[in-house]
Specification:
It is built from 14 helices and 15 strands. The chain is an alpha/beta fold and 437 residues long. Keywords: Transferase.
Length: 437
């Protein structure tokens, strides 16, 4: 482990100034925060019926989502914004509607409706790919009976870039915009590229939206076929199925969430007097050159070390690490070995947990969900529990137990790793609540 501090490269400070979420454990940041602190799991039996039946009917799906009702919570929203939302979301797919709600939450927390930024100076990154499979699957039987059944808008709606069109029209975003794909690392990939847009001076702020993974029975069967998805041994006790770093883990448990961050340069946030929630000190992406789903200790280690190098922090200065922690036996084993290698003597002291134990694995949006969880814990001064961690696979790791613990967090790391050898890590720093502008 390298104890010496590194000097970060000179680049604009990137802050998080807004956050929004729609998930299985909360439809806004306040509900999500309470669920984290209480150790509330969103994993349950999946109620929807499908043809054929789901291979594994356990997951943390978004429950009770009503777009019109949730839109009604923004009653003081400017009329122009309300009309724009209603125009482009009428009969929109579920993935679009959840993105819009999480983005509205983040946009308004960042005060971008009453303290705006020039539209050309705002970027948009959609974190997630292949996001419309269940939407397409649901239309297939009707299409086979009558091809003309298709909506005239289907040609736009089946493309991931529809998220860019809808959100840019709602918020009048006219800077750079694109979709980032990185399997389960998509969220972190999106955040890192959003931060890079700001650091390059191309935009002053960037909306990063982690899109709901709305899987069809085909994708669920595919994950089961390769042995990636768990839930079989606890099919009668679904709340116990997601077990990151526990000896009885058997694979990831499907989760759903749309999560959004507003990233902004420190200068822009200060000029607008928009309170910063956290600084992004560093973020790294690498590949370990494989077409498989196998994790790689060298790739994961390099990602964490590179993020630390960018941040200017030594490993011993990290108080807390939000692990990838997918509940996959091999994935958990490799990650904990990589963390131990990176943190060395500090390994027994850095606090660890896995948000997926509560939310399930939200796939494309997981990285954004877990950054939000990290920032929430920083702000509130607690570490959320690992509710099913009964027999840890590593006896020296400083895992949080069955209940939340109070702890100040000044600096934190969040990992996300994806199939196809995609390794990412991000370093965050708390911004004191009494920061002057």
């Amino acid at each position: 482990m390298t104890e010496k501090k590194h000097s970060p490269k000179s680049s604009p400070c990137v802050q998080i100034t807004g956050m929004g979420i729609v998930s299985a454990i909360g439809h806004n940041i306040a509900e999500f925060t309470r669920s984290l602190a209480d150790g509330k799991s969103g994993v349950r039996r999946i109620a929807r019926s499908t043809t054929p039946p789901l291979a594994v009917a356990i997951g943390a799906e978004i429950d009770g989502f009503n777009f019109e009702q949730m839109l009604g919570q923004f009653s003081d929203m400017p009329e122009s914004l309300t009309q724009s939302v209603q125009h482009v979301t009428r009969r929109a797919p579920f993935t679009i509607q959840t993105s819009v709600i999480s983005a509205l939450q983040a946009w308004r927390q960042a005060r971008l409706d009453d303290k705006p930024i020039e539209p050309e100076r705002i970027g948009l990154v959609i974190a997630g790919h292949n996001t419309t499979q269940n939407y397409q699957y649901s239309l297939c039987s009707d299409f086979q009976r009558n091809p003309e059944y298709l909506s005239p808008r289907y040609a736009l709606q089946f493309m991931d870039s529809n998220q860019i069109g809808v959100l840019s029209e709602i918020f009048n975003i006219r800077g750079e915009g694109f979709v980032t794909g990185g399997a389960s690392a998509s969220g972190n990939v999106g955040v890192i590229h959003g931060a890079r847009l700001i650091q390059a001076g191309l935009v002053d702020a960037c909306l990063v939206v982690g899109v709901v993974a709305d899987l069809s029975p085909m994708e669920i069967q595919g994950f089961c076929t390769i042995g990636a998805m768990g839930g079989k041994q606890f099919h009668d006790q679904p709340e116990k199925a997601c077990r990151p770093f526990d000896a009885l883990h058997e694979g990831f448990i499907y989760g759903q969430a749309s999560a959004c961050l507003v990233l902004e340069s420190g200068d822009s946030a200060n000029a607008r007097k928009a309170p910063g929630l956290a600084n992004i000190l560093g973020g790294a992406i690498n590949l370990h050159a494989t077409a498989s789903a196998q994790p790689d200790i060298d790739g994961e280690t390099k990602a964490m070390n590179a993020a630390l190098q960018q941040s200017g922090l030594a490993a011993c200065e990290i108080d807390y690490l939000n692990t990838h922690g997918s509940s996959s036996p091999l994935g958990d084993k490799v990650e904990i070995q990589a963390i131990e290698q990176v943190f060395g003597d500090h390994f027994p002291r850095v606090r660890l947990n896995a948000t997926k134990g509560l939310t399930g694995h939200c796939l494309y949006s997981a990285g954004v969900v877990e950054i939000i969880a990290t920032v929430v814990q920083m702000q509130q001064g607690f570490i959320h529990p690992n509710i099913n961690l009964e027999n840890p696979i590593n006896a020296t790791a400083n895992f949080c137990g069955a209940t939340a613990v109070s702890q100040p967090i000044h600096s934190a790391m969040s990992n996300s790793f994806g199939f196809g050898g995609i390794n990412t890590s991000i370093v965050l720093q708390k911004i004191p609540a009494d920061t002057d502008f």
